[in-house]
């Protein structure tokens, strides 16, 4: 069987533009063409697309996926075993979080008070104040830190809601950019990196391109920041770091 690009996009839940991009970079080139020159995908192509999407969901960058799939010594069954192991780990973590939320919902509905241990065991003993403490330890003596503290002290509940809405909108835009397979050095990625920098300037302190570059490195090296950005989309922290670097060079 052979399938046109629009039908394959529908099967996989991706855009036609994404499939065109995969073809353009040699990651997934259709096995055939119609008489009119339109892309036609066979069952082998669909198997490869499935592998690509599994790895994308796990946060692998496109160039790394290409290396993995094009390794002549690679066993297709080994790809599936690796993906199953990684996905199972993620599923277990999400299920643990979902169970904790369900427990809290049921307890509230039934008027049961959970113990402190039961309320917070899902977070694995992580202290949310560590971020604030570390920020003060790193930057407490800087003008930027003082400015961010001054501004934050004056924000209302509605201000924080607007800020969070802007972050969510930005995250959705960045997710769509990565879904389309656009590189971190592309115009759209650099524009969103610049929007990220300006958002910091709007709400906290004036963030220069060089300061922003340092933040980008921290988003990858610090597992807590990486987890925050990768929760928007696996691999987003590294992609953003590279986009921030590219944008800083563009602004230089």
TrEMBL record:
<keyword id="KW-0238">DNA-binding</keyword>
<protein>
    <submittedName>
        <fullName>MerR family transcriptional regulator</fullName>
    </submittedName>
</protein>
<dbReference type="Pfam" id="PF07739">
    <property type="entry name" value="TipAS"/>
</dbReference>
<dbReference type="InterPro" id="IPR009061">
    <property type="entry name" value="DNA-bd_dom_put_sf"/>
</dbReference>
<keyword id="KW-0804">Transcription</keyword>
<dbReference type="InterPro" id="IPR000551">
    <property type="entry name" value="MerR-type_HTH_dom"/>
</dbReference>
<dbReference type="InterPro" id="IPR047057">
    <property type="entry name" value="MerR_fam"/>
</dbReference>
<feature type="domain" description="HTH merR-type">
    <location>
        <begin position="1"/>
        <end position="71"/>
    </location>
</feature>
<dbReference type="InterPro" id="IPR036244">
    <property type="entry name" value="TipA-like_antibiotic-bd"/>
</dbReference>
<keyword id="KW-0010">Activator</keyword>
<dbReference type="Pfam" id="PF13411">
    <property type="entry name" value="MerR_1"/>
</dbReference>
<dbReference type="InterPro" id="IPR012925">
    <property type="entry name" value="TipAS_dom"/>
</dbReference>
<keyword id="KW-0805">Transcription regulation</keyword>
